[in-house]
Amino acid sequence: MGTTMLHHISFGVRDLGRSGAFYDAVLAPLGYVRVFEHDTALGYGKAGGGDKLSLKWVPEVALPGDGFHLAFAAETPDQVRAFHAAALQHGGRCNGAPGPRPHYGCHYFAAFVVDPDG
Question: Which of 15, 27, 30, 117 has minimal Cβ neighbours within 10 Å of its Cβ?
Answer without folding.
Answer: 15
